[in-house]
Amino acid sequence: MLLRLLFVLLIALNIAVGAWLLLGQNDTHMHFATDPGVPKLRLLSELPTPPGSVAPAASSAVPTSAPATAAVAPAPANTALPPASPNALSYACMALGPFATQEDLRIARNVLGAQVLRTRARQEQATEVRSWWVHLPPAPSHAAALSLALQLGQKNIKDYFVVGAGDNQNTVSLGLFKDPANARKRRDEIAAAGFNAQLTERTETVPEYWLDLMPVDSKHFDWRSRIHDQAIGSHSTGCF
Length: 240
Prior knowledge:
alpha+beta, Alpha-Beta Plaits, 6-stranded antiparallel beta sheet, 27% helix, 23% strand, SPOR domain-containing protein, SPOR-like_sf
């Protein structure tokens, strides 16, 4: 009986000590968000107001009626630009050609040398008159063309033949000439004999070679002093 009473008292004592530790020691078990030794943060409203001081206003009014502006000095009405230096270099691209062969173009490029900043070779197709053809207009039939040829022979006109096929069928050809002066002379002889002789240019598509370049100084660039072929010309072109 005595042991049971001691056991009950011991339990009651433990309960009393636990309640005292839990409810009576709040400051001891309180956890702070700051490290030890660091003062707690406090709101300004919690601080005591020193005597003779005025509490700050909730918000500062900013005057909007007269905004501050920076004074800007007006630019002069007429600003004179500095004159260009007479020794200033000028840049403009040009094309030289046409050259008959790629070898002629290569030689010209090497001759110009350091007078140009950069060069570019290009090839174009051109239509060129190769010869001049003297002939009579096409006859309506092959028999009519042979009749015209017989009439030419009766006038002591030689060196002709009748075209028997192709685009110029039934045409009486009177000669193909490299020199236009000789072609015109032949045409005039046939016309003087009473025939309607015609002169037609014979063209052919041939390649042409051009050299595009940008001189170091376009104003003083004299390519004629280095390239003496009179068949070569020049014209301005877009830079590249």
